[in-house]
Design a protein that fits this description.
Length: about 160
């Protein structure tokens, strides 16, 4: 995930981000008043739910990329990994727009930063797949998975029901 913006959009912008209207919230001013824990969880889970639905809608080839996957088959994964990267970027943008309670700011900022990192690994996987490089795809996906562990633990421990699962 990525670091939290210095400019926090209003709640209306956050809701627009949730439904895919990122352009409407470009650097708009808004309240930087921290959300309550329950508000953060509710809005965050809504963002994650929307992202999950988009991820579930990605059409991908059958099977997995292994060392033995032929380059032509590996290339078929380029678009699904690119789509995943876009969704993760959007999710990180929307989650980063939320202002957590002050006491939880550092942990939440790390979660958003980790999500940005996961999006970058998905982009690396997409580029490697486009090149037909199965080993590089596997490396990127393994890095993506390991970057997610701490965030998942924080999110589930904090009380999120959708994010982190």
């Amino acid at each position: 995930m990525r670091g939290v913006n210095s400019r926090i959009p209003s709640l209306a912008c956050v809701l627009l981000l949730i439904v895919g209207g990122a352009a409407a919230c470009s650097s708009g001013g808004g309240s930087s008043k921290p959300l309550t824990k329950s508000e953060l969880i509710a809005l965050g889970d809504k963002v994650c739910s929307q992202s999950g639905k988009k991820i579930d809608g990605i059409s991908s080839p059958s099977g997995q990329v292994t060392d033995e996957t032929p380059p032509a088959q590996v290339r078929k994964w380029a678009k699904p990994y690119a789509a995943l990267a876009d969704i993760l970027d959007q999710e990180a943008l929307a989650l980063g727009a939320l202002t957590p309670p002050s006491a939880d700011s550092a942990s939440y900022t790390k979660v958003v930063s980790d999500l940005r990192i996961q999006a970058e690994y998905a982009k690396q996987a997409a580029a490697a797949a486009k090149a037909g490089n199965a080993i590089a795809v596997q490396k990127a996906l393994a890095s993506q998975k390991s970057s997610n562990a701490d965030s998942e633990e924080f999110l589930t421990g904090y009380g999120f029901k959708v994010c982190g699962t």
